[in-house]
Specification:
The protein is mainly α. The protein is 73% helix and 0% strand.
Length: 89
């Protein structure tokens, strides 16, 4: 997060600047779209990526790196032994 914060912030600032240039045109629909995109990028870069994501990652702790469906080799070996024992009985 610390390594990419500068890049994300710079990219968001560039995108906001580009989208706000559409406010200079005469077409109202383009102005609305440009303003909406600029606000969306600004909210995403500041509130979501710089505040909400780090806070949720801090709360979750090691659960951030849990991947569903991935099992350790020992867990599958133990589970296989249990199934074999049941089959013998």
């Amino acid at each position: 997060m610390a390594r990419t914060a500068k890049v994300i912030t710079a990219a968001a600032a560039i995108m906001v600047a580009v989208f706000t240039t559409s406010l200079l045109g005469p077409d109202v629909a383009v102005k609305q779209g440009g303003l909406g995109m600029a606000v969306a990028v600004l909210i995403d870069a500041t509130i979501i990526r710089m505040i909400l994501v780090p806070a949720v990652m801090e709360l979750c702790g090691n659960a951030n790196w849990w991947m569903p469906g991935r099992r350790s080799p020992r867990a599958t070996a133990v589970r296989g032994a249990e199934v074999g024992e049941e089959a013998r009985i």
